[in-house]
Amino acid sequence: MAARRNTPQKEIIRHTLRRMCCHPTAVAVFEEVRRDHPTISRSTVYRVLGQLTEEGEILRLHLSGEGERYDGNTHRHNHVRCTRCGAVADIPAVEMDEPTETAGYLLTGCAVEYAGVCPRCRAALDC
Questions:
Q1: Is there a contact between 76 and 111 (Cβ–Cβ < 8 Å)?
Q2: CATH class of 8-71
């Protein structure tokens, strides 16, 4: 695939996502970008998020029970999702052995998602 141009919009969206650190949805990225760049369109943000994902510059997360979210951190790591509020955080990756039986599947990747209750929700439960 031919390299895509590094447009000003692409740089703005990349920088915004990496600054957010909260694993936002595409809608949240769009809303954040629009604060400083009100003329940028929703379709531009969605298209650029797709391009950045294809180019390996960001991650598209498919979390259980939720829509897609995006992550500017492409280093190897896992995620934990709060079962109460939906917040997502990075946690260190742990080594896992590949399964010896794959039911005939050719394995192409693995994503580990932990579920729990975040500190803010835990504090609210203690009230």
A1: no
A2: mainly alpha
How does pLDDT run across 16-66, given as a tens digit for each residue? 999 998 899 999 999 999 999 999 999 999 999 999 999 999 999 998 777
Rounded to two decimals, the pTM is: 0.83
CB contact burial 15-47 (16+ within 10 A = b; e otherwise): ebbeeeeebbbbebbbebbeeeeeebeeebbee
Closest CA relative to residue 77, chosen from 88, 64, 65: 88
CATH 1.10.10.10 in the chain, residue ranges: 8-71
Length of the chain: 127
HSE-CB for 80 with a 13 A CA cutoff:
11
Asked whether the beta carbons of 18 and 72 are under 8 A apart, the reply is yes
Q: For 77-125, which CATH class?
A: alpha beta
Task: Give the contacts of 40 (CB within 8 A, at least 6 positions apart).
Answer: 9, 12, 30, 33, 34
Distance from the first to the final alpha carbon of the chain = 55
